[in-house]
């Protein structure tokens, strides 16, 4: 009797394990399929491409960011629309220029990849913004005319914001002259009109 009970228990356990194993098997597919994760969201493999300055989807406000276009021997600054968060300040907007190349193929960014935006802050009770950078000026930075183009991009982008009228530049906390049209330099605040020739 005891042997018979043990036999039935072994058979029952074997059936349960077989059923469980069958339910846990994974079928294979010849083609990739979308995997649904929590909240019915498609899970995708991380991208291996470099970041660009594509518009942020679902942002809160649209800003104009300036890039460079060269055509038929002429160079000009071209505004393109980008979306940023509702609370984005001047530094968040300028970060777009310091983080990569434009997605528009005809345009380029003369702010070099090696340059770093250390800060962009409005002066108290003023509409001037101080833009502090590293790797943009001096021997380790870019030279004219690329420097003038890069500064024009920064100035015209910053002054598109309603709170900014002009820009002062610093290199690692020290005031520097700004390259303007005709490759001249000035020690005063600059605005987009200083880059009219672009």
Describe the protein in words:
It is a single chain. The protein has 198 residues and is of the alpha+beta class. The radius of gyration is 29 Å and the shape is globular. The strands form four sheets. It has a four-stranded mixed beta sheet with strand order 5-6-7-8, with helices on one face. Helix 2 runs antiparallel to helix 3 (146-158). The chain is 22% helix and 27% strand. The model is unreliable at 16-22, 24-29 and 31-57 (pLDDT under 50).
Mean pLDDT: 79
Major sheet, described briefly?
Answer: 4 strands, mixed
Put simply, the count of helices is 3
Helix content: 10-25%
Radius of gyration: 29 Å
Give the amount of beta strand, in percent: 25-35%
The shape is globular
Sequence of secondary-structure elements: HEEEEHEEHEEEE
SS-based class: alpha+beta
How many β strands by DSSP? 10
Q: Name the poorly predicted regions.
A: 16-22, 24-29, 31-57
Strand order of the largest sheet: 5-6-7-8
Q: Distance between termini?
A: 100 Å
What is the element layout, followed by pairings?
Elements: H1 2-23, E1 35-36, E2 42-43, E3 61-71, E4 74-84, H2 90-98, E5 116-122, E6 128-134, H3 146-158, E7 166-171, E8 174-176, E9 178-179, E10 185-186
Parallel strand pairs: 6-7
Antiparallel strand pairs: 1-2, 3-4, 5-6, 7-8, 9-10
Helix pairs in contact: 2-3
Keywords:
198 residues; 3 helices
Task: Please sum up the structure shown.
This protein has helices at residues 2-23, 90-98, 146-158, and strands at residues 35-36, 42-43, 61-71, 74-84, 116-122, 128-134, 166-171, 174-176, 178-179, 185-186. With 198 residues, the chain is of the alpha+beta class.
């Amino acid at each position: 009797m005891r042997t018979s009970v043990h036999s039935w228990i072994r058979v029952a356990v074997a059936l349960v394990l077989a059923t469980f194993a069958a339910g846990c098997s994974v079928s294979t597919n010849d083609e990739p399929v979308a995997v649904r994760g929590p909240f019915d969201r498609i899970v995708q493999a991380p991208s291996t491409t470099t970041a660009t300055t594509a518009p942020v989807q679902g942002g809160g406000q649209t800003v104009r960011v300036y890039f460079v276009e060269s055509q038929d021997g002429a160079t000009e600054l071209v505004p393109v629309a980008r979306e940023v968060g509702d609370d984005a300040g001047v530094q968040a907007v300028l970060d777009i220029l310091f983080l990569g190349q434009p997605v528009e193929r005809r345009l380029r960014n003369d702010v070099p990849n090696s340059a770093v935006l250390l800060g962009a802050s409005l002066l108290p009770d003023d509409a001037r913004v101080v833009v502090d950078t590293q790797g943009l000026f001096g021997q380790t930075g870019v030279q004219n005319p690329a420097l003038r183009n890069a500064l024009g991009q920064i100035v015209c982008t910053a002054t598109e914001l309603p709170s900014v009228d002009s820009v002062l530049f610093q290199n690692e906390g020290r005031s520097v002259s700004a390259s303007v049209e005709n490759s001249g330099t000035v020690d005063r605040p600059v605005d987009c009109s200083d880059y009219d020739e672009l």
